[in-house]
Amino acid sequence: MKKTLSIEKIKEFLFLALLILFPFNLRHIFNFDKIKDVEGFREHISWSVSVFEIVFLLLLSVVLFELLRSMLRNKVSCNRLICWIKYTFHLNNFSKLSALFFVVVLVFNFFVSQDKTICLHSEVKIIGAFLLFFIAKELFRSNQTKKYSVIFIFLGGVLQSLITLMQFVAQKSLGLKLLGESVIAPDILGVAKFEFAAEKFIRGYGTFPHPNILGTFLLFALAAGMWLFLKKKNGQNSIGNVGLITGNTLIFAGIFLSYSRSVLFALVIFATTLLFAHKKYIIEIYQKYCQKLRVHFFLHGAIGLIIVFSVLFALYNLFIPRLCLTDCPNDKSIVLRLLYNKAAFATISERPITGVGSGCFVYYLSENSSFGLQPWERQPVHNLYLLITSELGLLGLISFLLFLATQINSKHVLKRKLLSNPLVIIFFMFLILGLFDHFFWTIPQAQTIFWLSLAFFASSGRIRKNMI
Questions:
Q1: Mutual angle of helices 143-170 and 211-231, in 10-degree steps
Q2: Among 150, 246, 295, 369, which residue has the fewest nearby CB atoms (within 10 Å)?
Q3: What are the tens digits of pLDDT across the range 325-334?
């Protein structure tokens, strides 16, 4: 019994260590000399290992050791092994079949891919993130582990927001190379920036490889912070509440400094849904502070309107440079996204069932000059679902969506009351973000965010008094 508990503790420790480390882009690229002069997106050809991936391999080794020991001790047959996996990872028959279908499609895709080396590299990352979901979902059976996980993600968001704020004020990187910070400055080509009043400003990176991934992580951290705040809303710990409010405010600021249009769009939907779900509680808090400030009752509505319109006015003037969607001389992102969509539909029409191979979309662009893209403009299509269909074919998209559907149905999360839970809402926001970017499929850090959010989502219930 003691040994089993010790293994559980080791699994919990390694998992929490992974949550602490994955926001930091600490990795070693083994073939850096070969790819350093390659222009454009290089993730699909960069053979690398991150610190958090090493921790994940250790975690996976512990899980496999536990499985092997159980098999040897109990002389587990094949049928009993399937039952053990089903019980451990909460898989019903439909969920088990959909997971198997997804893996089979990935294996089949390897044999029909245009470049098997690139495909193997990509699929190893995808399967690793897929396994992380199952491990996280099992660990979240412990309320204590789940709570610690939420706290670490929230604290990680606060730290990333502080780094982002300092980067924005300094308008350059802070020299945090040991934490995986990218080298950024307004005059460096390829650094994401925006122009305001004829002057260029860098967008916040934190220690992520791109501001959009930073914004996505901070949105995840904001959901974690709101989860903690709502859990404590009926508590008496005022110091804890002040800390959560301060931390969430910092994260909110960090999201805006990432200047990601898609993340800002998701933030609006997230905040609106959460405010609607907890409108009674929000009104109670507002009235409570009005009473403390001795504001007369008939002025409550007027002050509320002034606050709302002041915030909207400030945000509009602050972010008008990023609101350009057509005819933007300093921003080609919309034009390029349309070209990537066109290329994606071309790959789907050529190989609708099998796709071009996992990770091979950019390789396909480099082999086809008909799209008129320069080398530095070749990137994956900025749509998760189009990218999966392009690389894995319709079989891949169906298997992916089918597996997600099994997790949604298994917890009945479409019930209205469950939308009070920030960790439920945030997964839907990530599904929306998938319409605007590719990193949930191509970047290890973003893959981790997506599959972790699904694990939280699948293990969450509706928020009740003093509990989640």
A1: 130
A2: 369
A3: 555 555 567 7
